[in-house]
Design a protein that fits this description.
The complex is a heterotrimer of chains A (440), B (309) and C (358).
Chain A (H helix, E strand, L loop, with lengths): L1 H18 L9 E8 L6 H20 L7 E8 L4 H12 L11 H14 L3 E2 L17 E2 L5 H16 L9 E7 L2 H4 L2 H11 L2 E7 L7 H10 L3 E5 L3 H12 L7 E3 L6 H4 L10 E4 L9 H11 L14 H24 L7 H9 L2 E2 L1 H7 L8 E2 L10 E7 L4 E3 L4 E2 L2 H19 L6 H4 L2
Parallel strand pairs in A: 1-2, 3-4, 5-6, 5-7, 7-8, 8-9
Antiparallel strand pairs in A: 9-12, 10-11, 12-13, 12-14
Helix pairs in contact in A: 2-11, 2-12, 3-4, 5-7, 12-13
Chain B lengths: L1 H31 L6 H23 L4 H28 L7 H23 L15 E3 L8 E3 L1 H23 L1 H11 L1 H6 L4 H27 L8 H12 L4 H26 L4 H15 L14
Antiparallel strand pairs in B: 1-2
Chain C lengths: L12 H5 L5 H21 L2 H27 L7 H18 L5 H20 L7 H21 L12 E2 L4 E2 L2 E2 L3 H24 L1 H11 L1 H6 L4 H28 L1 E2 L6 H14 L4 H29 L5 H22 L4 H14 L5
Antiparallel strand pairs in C: 1-4, 2-3
The chains are: A alpha/beta (440), B mainly alpha (309), C mainly alpha (358).
C-alpha cells in the first residue's frame, strides 16, 4: 500500500502536467495532419500508405519546402475507427492544418460535416463520397483523381471489353463481394445502374467487417457461379477473399478488385494462388522504376530518413500515399501562386488552390511522375479533376499492367453524381454554388 | 443436393476450428473457474510468436528445412506461452483469489488488451505467414455420385483431424495421468482438492499452460488459413457461442457445440442469407446458442447450476 | 473531523429521506454543479469540450444505465453498444422523418425504442443466468450491428448507410457552440442521474438488489423475478438509448453502424466495473477514467519519449497505450476490486474520523 500512496499522486501530477500542455506557437511552417492507422485489422495496408505520404512530405522538405515554406506534420493513430479519426481531427485542428486526408470513407462522412465549419478542405484521393466530385454542392471535399464510381465503371468496362462489348454482358452474372460498411456499399448505385442498362445480373454478397471468415460467402459464389466477381474489400478481407477463392476453386482471372483491394499485402502471402487476379488502379500501379521512386530512395531513404522499409518504396499503396501527398502539396503551391508565394497558407486558401489545380503532364513529369500519372485539372464544378484508370494483374511475383488507360463514362457518371449531390443539398438545405461564388 | 452436402461439410470443418479455440475457454473455466476472455489474445500472441520465430530462425541460424524450422518455431512459441501462463498466474490470479466472477472476467479482459499490445509491440502488426505445408487447392471427391464432384477443402480437413487428435490427447491426459486427475479434482471442488494436498497454484499454472498450447495449435491452424494479423483475436468472439452452447465446463461439449454452431452458421448464411440480404452468420450463431440455452440454461453438457438459498 | 455528521438532526421525514442527508454532501454537490454549469464553460478550451467534457458527460449517462443493469440488478450485459445504436437510430428516424420534430422528444422516443429492444433481448435473462447471459446478450449486439447495416429503412435508404444530423436546436436555442452542446448534455445527465438515484433508492431498486444478491431467495419472499429483471432492462436501456442518441447527434454528428460496435459494449462494462458496481457515483468516476485515459496516454507517452530523446511511431504509442490500459485495469482490480467508488467512500470514512486512523 505504501507504493500505492506514492504512485497515485505521481500519476495525478503527470496528468495535470500533460493536460496543461498548450498548443504550439504558430511557426512559419505549413502544417499537414497525417491521420493514419498503423494498428488494427487494416494496418498492413494503412501503414504502407502512411509511409509513402510521410516520405513525400520529407522529400518536399529536402527541397526547401514549397517556395521556402517548410512542411511540418504530425501523425495521429485512428485505427480506422470513425470516432478516433474525429478525435484526431479535433486535436490537430488547432494547428491550422492545410487539409485533412482521413483515409477512411466512414471518417470522411463524419469530417465532411465538420470541415465547412472549420474551413479545412478534405482531400480524399480514391475514396470518400463519390458524389463529392460535384464541387458546386461539396465546396470543401476533393475526391481528386478518382472516386468509387469511377473504379466500378472502369472495372465493368474492362469486363465488357473482355467479353467483346457491352451487349455481350446481357444475361451474365457479376457478383460483388464487398466489405459491409459505407466503403463497401459505395459502388452499388453505379453497378445497379449499369446492370439495368445492359441486362446483367448483379449479386450482392456482403462480408461482415473485418472480413476474417468468408467461407460461406465463397460457397455461395461457388453455387451461383457468377461469370465475374468484383472484390471490394480492405485490409485482411482481401487476402482472405483470395485464399477462399482458391479454396473453393473460383478462377482468380475472373476476379477484379477495387484499387484498395489490389496491392501487395493482399496477394503476397498467397503468391501463386493469386496469379491472374486483376485490380483496377487509380492512375498509378506498382512503379519501382519511376523517377519519383528514385528520388525518394536517393533523397530520403539513403539519408536514413525513410519512414518504412526500403523494399516497399515503389509498391502500390506506398505510391498511393505519395500521390495523395503530392496532390495536397500542389494544392498548397497553387494557393501560394494566388495568395502570396513564400507565405503560410490557411485552410481557405488551400481550398482555392485545390479547386484550381492544373497539373499538366509537364508539371507531373518534372515532379517525377512521368508515365505514372496523367494530367489532373480541377474546377469549381468538378472536384475530381481526372478519371483515368488502368487494370493491373498479379503474375505471382509482381503487379503488371494488362490494359490501356481507361476513363470512366461521363454519360453515366455525371447524372448519377448530380442527382445524389442534389439529394444531399436538399437534405442539408444547401444552395448550389454559382459562378460568383466560384471566384473566391 | 451436392451443394447442400458441400455446405454441411464446410460447416462441420469450420465448427471444428471454432471448437479448437473454445477448448481453451473450457479448460481454464473447468479448472480455475475463470472465464478467460484473453483466449483470443492468447491465440493471436501464440500465432505471432510462431510466425515470427519461423521467419527469424533461418536468418539467425541458417536452417532452411521447412519442417525443422516450423517444429522449432512451434516449440519456442510453446515455451513463450508457458512463460505467459506462469506470469499470469503469478501476477494476476494469485492476487485475485476468491474474488467474484465479474472481477476475474474483467481482469482477463485487461490481460487480453495487454497481450494484444505486447504481441504487436514485440512481433509487429503486419500480416505474417505461417506455412506448415497445408494444401491450398480444393479436392473434388465423389465425382461419380455427384456431377462435378463434391468440394472438399483439404486444409480444413487436415485442421479438423488435428483438432480431433488434440482432443484425444487431452482426454488421455486428463484420464490417465496423475496431473490430469489432479486437474479434474480441482475442477470438481477447489477446497476439497486443497485439503488433500493438491497445490492449487501449480495446478492453475499447468492449466493455463495447457490452454496456452491449445491456443498455439489454434493460432497455428487459423494463422495458416487466414494469415497472422491482429484480427485473429476476433476469432474468439466467433467461438463464444460454441462455449455457451456446449456448456462452460465440458470438453466434449466444446466439440459438439462447435459442430452445431459451424453447421448452423454456414447453412443459415448460404440458404437463409440471400432472403435477408446476407451477412447473418455471426448473429445467427449467437441466436442459435441462445435458443439452445433457453431449453437447457447450462448448455448442452454443462454442469447443472444448483442454487443454495 | 471534516465529515462529521454530529449535530445534524432531522425533524421531518422528507429531511430524513433526502438524497444527501449530510450537509457537507449537499454543499459539495451544489458546488460541483456550480462549477460544472457556470465555471467550466469559461475556462475550458474548445478541445477540452470536444474531446473530454462532452464524451465524458454522455458516457457517464450510458455508464449509469449499464450500472443499473449490471451493478444493481446483477445481469451482466455485453449488449450495451446495441442499445446505444437503437437509441441513436430511433431518435434519428423520428427526427428526420417527422417534419419539425423537436430534438428533445426525438431523443426520448429514441430512448423508448431502445427500451423495447432492451426488453426483448432481456427476455432470456428469465431463464439464463451469469456468464451464459453475458454471452447471450452479445446476440443483441451482433444482431443490431447487422440490422442497421442491412435494413435500409433505418438509415433512410441512403446507399452508404451513413447518416448525419445538423441544425440542432432545443427550445429555439441553437446547439451549435461547444458550450451549448455541453450544457445541454449536462442538464440531461443531471436529470437522468436524479431519476436513477431515486429509482435505486426506492422499492424497485431494492427489488433489483435482492435479485442480484440471490434471485431464488428473492422469488421466495415474493419479488417477481420477471417484473424486476425486465424493468431493470427497460430502465437501463432507456438511459443507454438516450445516451446513444446524444453520442450520435451531439458528439459524432455523422455516424455509421460501426460506431456502436462490440468495443463500445466492452468500454461501457469497463467503466462500470472500474467505477464501482452498484453505485451511481461509480458510473461517473469510471466514465471519467476511461474517457480521459486514452487521451492522457496519447499526449503523455510521446512527451515521455521526447524527454528520453527517442522518437516513437504512432503504432508503438498505440500498442503501449493498449498495454498500459490492460495493465492498469488488472492493477486496479487487484488493488480495489470494488472500484473507484469504494476508494471514494474509504476517503470519506477517513475524513470522518480524521485525525484518528480508524
Amino acid at each position: 500500500m505504501k507504493t500505492f500512496k506514492l504512485v497515485l499522486p505521481a500519476l495525478l501530477a503527470a496528468f495535470a502536467l500533460s493536460a496543461a500542455t498548450t498548443v504550439l506557437a504558430q511557426s512559419k511552417e505549413q502544417f499537414v495532419p497525417v491521420l493514419s492507422y498503423r494498428t488494427g485489422p487494416y494496418a498492413p495496408n494503412g501503414t504502407q500508405w502512411a509511409n509513402g505520404f510521410v516520405d513525400y512530405l520529407k522529400l518536399v522538405n529536402t527541397k526547401g519546402g514549397i517556395n521556402n515554406v517548410k512542411i511540418s506534420f504530425e501523425e495521429c493513430e485512428t485505427g480506422y475507427d470513425t470516432a478516433r479519426s474525429v478525435e484526431c481531427y479535433e486535436r490537430l485542428k488547432s494547428k491550422n492544418p492545410s487539409f485533412v486526408q482521413p483515409l477512411s470513407t466512414g471518417a470522411t462522412f463524419a469530417i465532411t460535416e465538420k470541415a465547412p465549419v472549420d474551413k479545412i478542405p478534405v482531400v480524399t484521393v480514391g475514396y470518400g463520397r463519390s458524389e463529392s466530385a460535384d464541387g458546386a454542392v461539396f465546396k470543401w471535399n476533393f475526391p481528386i483523381a478518382g472516386t468509387y464510381w469511377v473504379a466500378a465503371d472502369t472495372i465493368l468496362q474492362a469486363i465488357a471489353k473482355k467479353e467483346g462489348g457491352w451487349d455481350k454482358l446481357k444475361g451474365k452474372k457479376i457478383g460483388l463481394v464487398y466489405h459491409d460498411s459505407p466503403f463497401g456499399k459505395e459502388p452499388i448505385p453505379l453497378l445497379q445502374e449499369r446492370s439495368r442498362n445492359h441486362g446483367f445480373e448483379l449479386q450482392l454478397l456482403p462480408v461482415t467487417a473485418p472480413g476474417v471468415e468468408q467461407k460461406a460467402t465463397w460457397l455461395q459464389v461457388r453455387q451461383a457461379r457468377p461469370d465475374y466477381v468484383v472484390l471490394w474489400g480492405w485490409g485482411v478481407m482481401n487476402s482472405t477473399a483470395i485464399k477462399e477463392a482458391q479454396a473453393t476453386g473460383y478462377p482468380r482471372e475472373k476476379m477484379y478488385g477495387v484499387w484498395w483491394a489490389g496491392a501487395e499485402p493482399d496477394v503476397k502471402d498467397v503468391a501463386d494462388g493469386a496469379k491472374g487476379y486483376n485490380a483496377v488502379t487509380i492512375q498509378h500501379g506498382a512503379e519501382p522504376n519511376s523517377d519519383i521512386v528514385k528520388n525518394l530512395l536517393a533523397q530520403v531513404h539513403s539519408k536514413g530518413q525513410g519512414t518504412g522499409p526500403k523494399e516497399e518504396v515503389g509498391q502500390v499503396l506506398y505510391l498511393r500515399g505519395v500521390m495523395s501527398a503530392m496532390i495536397g502539396i500542389e494544392g498548397i503551391r497553387a494557393a501560394q501562386e494566388r495568395f502570396g508565394k513564400g507565405k503560410v497558407m490557411t485552410g481557405e486558401q488551400v481550398r482555392w488552390g485545390l479547386e484550381n489545380l492544373n497539373l499538366t503532364q509537364a508539371k507531373l513529369d518534372a515532379l517525377g511522375f512521368k508515365g505514372v500519372m496523367r494530367p489532373i485539372s480541377t474546377s469549381c464544378m468538378d472536384h475530381m479533376g481526372a478519371a483515368w484508370t488502368r487494370i493491373h494483374t498479379w503474375n505471382g511475383k509482381a503487379w503488371e499492367f494488362t490494359s490501356d488507360w481507361m476513363q470512366a463514362d461521363e454519360q453515366i457518371l455525371k447524372p448519377l453524381v448530380k442527382t445524389t449531390a442534389d439529394k444531399y443539398a436538399t437534405e442539408k438545405k444547401l444552395v448550389r454554388r454559382t459562378g460568383q461564388d466560384c471566384q473566391s | 443436393m451436392a451443394f447442400f452436402l458441400e455446405t454441411l461439410l464446410g460447416g462441420l470443418m469450420a465448427g471444428m476450428l471454432y471448437s479448437l479455440v473454445a477448448l481453451g475457454f473450457v479448460l481454464i473455466y473447468k479448472a480455475s473457474g475463470v472465464f478467460n476472455f484473453a483466449q483470443g489474445a492468447m491465440v493471436l500472441f501464440a500465432a505471432l510468436a510462431m510466425a515470427r520465430f519461423a521467419e527469424w530462425l533461418p536468418q539467425l541460424t541458417g536452417l532452411t528445412q521447412p519442417v525443422l524450422v516450423n517444429l522449432i518455431a512451434f516449440v519456442l512459441a510453446g515455451g513463450v506461452m508457458f512463460m505467459v501462463a506462469w506470469l499470469i498466474e503469478r501476477l494476476v490470479l494469485r492476487r485475485l483469489v476468491n474474488q467474484e466472477g465479474t472481477t476475474l472476467l474483467m481482469a482477463t479482459l485487461g490481460i487480453a488488451y495487454f497481450l494484444e499490445g505486447l504481441g504487436q509491440t514485440i512481433f509487429g502488426n503486419d500480416i505474417y505467414k505461417i506455412d506448415i505445408g497445408m494444401p491450398k487447392d480444393p479436392v473434388m471427391a465423389f465425382d461419380t455420385i455427384f456431377p462435378g464432384g463434391l468440394l472438399i477443402n483439404q486444409e480444413d480437413l487436415i485442421a479438423a483431424l488435428i483438432a480431433a487428435l488434440l482432443v484425444a490427447l487431452l482426454s488421455v491426459f486428463f484420464q490417465k495421468t496423475a496431473t490430469g486427475r489432479a486437474l479434474r479434482a480441482v475442477a470438481d471442488d477447489h477446497q476439497a482438492a486443497q485439503s488433500i494436498g493438491i497445490p492449487l497454484n501449480r495446478i492453475w499454472v499447468i492449466v493455463w499452460c495447457v490452454a496456452g498450447v491449445v491456443a498455439l495449435v489454434a493460432g497455428m491452424i487459423w494463422g495458416s488459413k487466414l494469415g497472422v494479423q491482429f484480427s485473429l483475436a476476433t476469432v474468439a468472439l466467433r467461438a463464444l457461442p460454441v462455449v455457451i452452447l456446449g456448456g462452460l465446463t465440458s470438453v466434449p461439449g466444446a466439440i459438439i457445440g462447435g459442430l452445431i454452431i459451424g453447421v448452423g452458421e454456414k447453412l443459415s448464411e448460404v440458404f437463409l442469407g440471400p432472403y435477408v440480404g446476407g451477412g447473418i452468420e455471426i448473429w445467427f450463431a449467437y441466436v442459435l446458442a441462445l435458443l439452445f440455452l433457453l431449453v437447457r440454461p447450462q448448455g448442452l453438457f454443462g454442469e447443472k447450476i444448483i442454487d443454495r438459498v | 473531523m471534516f465529515y462529521r455528521e454530529n449535530g445534524q438532526f432531522k425533524t421531518s421525514y422528507p429531511e430524513d429521506q433526502q438524497i444527501f442527508p449530510i450537509a457537507q454532501d449537499r454543499v459539495f454537490v451544489v458546488l460541483l454543479l456550480l462549477v460544472a454549469f457556470a465555471a467550466v464553460p469559461f475556462f475550458a478550451s474548445d478541445y477540452m469540450f470536444r474531446a473530454i467534457l462532452i464524451p465524458f458527460v454522455i458516457m457517464a449517462m450510458a455508464a449509469l444505465g449499464v450500472n443499473i443493469l449490471v451493478g444493481y440488478c446483477g445481469q451482466i450485459s455485453l449488449g450495451s453498444g446495441a442499445f446505444m445504436a437503437v437509441g441513436a437510430y430511433g431518435a434519428y428516424n423520428f427526427f428526420a422523418r417527422v417534419p419539425d420534430m423537436p430534438l428533445l422528444p426525438a431523443l426520448l422516443l429514441g430512448g423508448l425504442c431502445a427500451t423495447a429492444f432492451g426488453v426483448l433481448f432481456g427476455l432470456p435473462s428469465l431463464r439464463v443466468r451469469g456468464l451464459y447471459l453475458a454471452v447471450a446478450t452479445l446476440a443483441a449486439q451482433f444482431f443490431a450491428d447487422w440490422m442497421f447495416l442491412r435494413v435500409k429503412w433505418f438509415t433512410l435508404d441512403t446507399p452508404s448507410g451513413s447518416v448525419s444530423v445538423s441544425n440542432l436546436q432545443v427550445f429555439g436555442l441553437p446547439l451549435d457552440s461547444d458550450v451549448s452542446k455541453y450544457l445541454f448534455c449536462l442538464t440531461l445527465l443531471v436529470l437522468i442521474a436524479l431519476l436513477a438515484k431515486n429509482l435505486v433508492r426506492g422499492a424497485i431498486g431494492r427489488e433489483w438488489m435482492a435479485i442480484r444478491d440471490m434471485d431464488v431467495a428473492a422469488a421466495v419472499i415474493g419479488i417477481r423475478p420477471m417484473y424486476a429483471k425486465l424493468s431493470a432492462f427497460a430502465v437501463s436501456s432507456f438511459i443507454i438509448g438516450v445516451a446513444g442518441a446524444l453520442w450520435a447527434f451531439i458528439y459524432l454528428g455523422s455516424w455509421e453502424p460501426g460506431a456502436f460496435s462490440v468495443d463500445q459494449s466492452f468500454r461501457l462494462l469497463f467503466m462500470v466495473i472500474i467505477g464501482g458496481l452498484g453505485s451511481i457515483m461509480g458510473g461517473f468516476l469510471g466514465a471519467a477514467f476511461i474517457v480521459v485515459l486514452p487521451i492522457f496516454l496519447n499526449q503523455f507517452l510521446p512527451m515521455l519519449a521526447g524527454l528520453a530523446g527517442i522518437e516513437i511511431s504512432t503504432a508503438v504509442v498505440s500498442h503501449t497505450e493498449l498495454m498500459i490500459f490492460g495493465a492498469l485495469i488488472v492493477w486496479f482490480l487487484i488493488v480495489e476490486p470494488h472500484g473507484l467508488a469504494k476508494l471514494w467512500s474509504i476517503g470519506k470514512q477517513k475524513m470522518r474520523v480524521w485525525p484518528f486512523p480508524y
